[in-house]
Amino acid sequence: MRNGNSKLVMRRDSLTDLPQLKIPEGYSLRSFQPSDVTEWENVIRISFAREIAFGDKIGFQPPFQPEKILFLCHQDMIVATAVAWEKEDSDPRCGYLHMVGALPGYSGQGLGYTIVLAALHRMREEGKRQAVLETDDFRLAAIRVYYKLGFLPVLLDRDHRDRWAIISNQLPTVSRRDL
């Protein structure tokens, strides 16, 4: 939570019509290996502007499944990550897009779109039919990607409509009709 606000929630109602996954030239896609903890924490710290321990968010959470933690790499360096997670208390047909981040030096190359799409493909391969995510108001670049991939806001709290309206004013490609 930032500034006392609850997380914003977005949902993609179907994973059947996902775009084809294309990894940009010069990049590779892979899943988590035990030696990746420090690099994951670095990408996430930069993306979220705060320290987040791998063990607290991913590694100690049941069920830990390293194949669900995806990385885009450039010359063996992790530059983007997303997790095709699931929440224990949610619908087993619904995937949870978790901890999406990318290094800013690689922005503008479609890497956020690619890593999120890779996570959605992973969810679909696991039999998930839809996906949900939580995000913060300040993560405008990520929200733009989520909209582009068919996620729409879910209004859960009293202030969500107003917060989404502010976001749509900051993102010209987002239509107010989606709120």
UniProtKB/TrEMBL annotation:
Source domain of life? Bacteria
Its keywords, alphabetically, are: Transferase
Q: Where's the N-acetyltransferase domain?
A: 27-170
- Does Transferase appear among the keywords? yes
GO molecular function ontology, one term from the record: acyltransferase activity, transferring groups other than amino-acyl groups
A Pfam entry, by short name: Acetyltransf_1
SUPFAM superfamilies documented for this protein: Acyl-CoA N-acyltransferases (Nat)
Say yes or no: keyword Transferase present. yes
Entry's InterPro entries? Acyl_CoA_acyltransferase, GNAT_dom
In its UniProt entry, what is this protein called?
A: GNAT family N-acetyltransferase
- The source organism is Paenibacillus lutimineralis
